[in-house]
């Protein structure tokens, strides 16, 4: 039995899921995760490396990877694809100018072999802002209906107001559990309980890591 198989089996036994949050910079990834974890959301700065948070959600442990979305960091996203159970793509619904860019980046990701089995949740975030595009408009702008390779769902939400965030996580957990842990169906809709493991690195170390992996 290969090492990867052993690791996979252990993860399944421990009911762990690996969830990767990606999206353009300023989309609200970190704010959503902090809000879900009950952390203060008033002092968030752009993510220059990555952070991992561990949530207990129902009977599952979610390892949530929050990776910076600035253009210069995007080539390093691929370092985080391995063993991803769900991809959460966060969109700033008020950022109409970059919706084309947003679509291109998402569709490029969905071509990746290592993300082939991952479910896709799109958070249409920042719905509290005037002029924000609706979830239906974003679904069309991102051409989600053309997706045949991944199970997907789009949800409008606001990290600032806290609306629809738990619902999104519920969908992810139910979706992945239904696929991987046969017999597991619905997971109670409640806020995740926040044991939180945190890891941060600086940009230099992050880029060095990326170079080493390349
Ligand atoms: N009005 C509003 N602002 C939001 C919302 N979510 C996030 N923001 C703001 O958007 C800005 C960017 O949020 P972040 O969470 O840092 O975005 P990010 O996607 O993690 O960005 P990177 O780390 O650079 O990739 C911050 O000023 C947040 O306060 C929301 O739902 N509504
Ligand atoms: Mg961030």
From TrEMBL:
- Cross-referenced CDD domains, in alphabetical order? Arl2
GO MF assignments:
GTP binding; GTPase activity; metal ion binding
Reply yes or no: does the keyword Cell inner membrane apply: no
- One Pfam short name: Arf
- Keyword Ribosomal protein belongs to the record: no
Q: Which UniProt keywords apply?
A: GTP-binding, Lipoprotein, Magnesium, Metal-binding, Myristate, Nucleotide-binding
Q: Where does GTP bind?
A: 23-30, 69, 125-128
List the SUPFAM superfamilies. Answer: P-loop containing nucleoside triphosphate hydrolases (SSF52540)
Gene3D superfamilies referenced in this protein's UniProt entry, alphabetically = P-loop containing nucleotide triphosphate hydrolases
Question: Record-annotated residues binding Mg(2+)?
Answer: 30, 47
Q: Which PANTHER family match?
A: ADP-RIBOSYLATION FACTOR-LIKE PROTEIN 2-RELATED
**Similarity-based family:** Belongs to the small GTPase superfamily. Arf family.
Q: What is this protein called?
A: ADP-ribosylation factor-like protein 2
Give the organism the record lists: Tulasnella calospora MUT 4182
């Amino acid at each position: 039995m290969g090492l990867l198989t052993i690791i996979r089996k252990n993860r399944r036994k421990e009911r762990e899921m690996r969830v990767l949050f990606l999206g353009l910079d300023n989309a609200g990834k970190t704010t959503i995760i902090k809000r879900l974890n009950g952390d203060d959301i008033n002092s968030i700065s752009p993510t220059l490396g990555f952070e991992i948070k561990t949530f207990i959600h129902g009977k599952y442990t979610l390892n949530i990877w929050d990776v910076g979305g600035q253009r210069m960091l995007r080539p390093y996203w691929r370092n985080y694809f391995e063993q991803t159970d769900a991809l959460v793509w966060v969109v700033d619904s008020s950022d109409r100018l970059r919706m084309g860019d947003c679509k291109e980046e998402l569709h490029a990701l969905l071509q990746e072999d290592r993300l082939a089995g991952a479910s896709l949740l799109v958070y249409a975030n920042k719905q509290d802002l005037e002029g924000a595009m609706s979830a239906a408009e974003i679904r069309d702008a991102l051409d989600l209906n053309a997706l045949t390779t991944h199970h997907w769902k789009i949800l409008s939400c606001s990290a600032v107001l806290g609306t629809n965030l738990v619902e999104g996580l519920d969908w992810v957990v139910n979706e992945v559990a239904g696929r991987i842990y046969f017999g597991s169906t619905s997971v109670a809709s409640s806020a995740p309980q926040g044991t939180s493991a945190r890891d941060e690195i600086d940009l230099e170390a992050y880029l060095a890591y990326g170079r080493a992996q390349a």
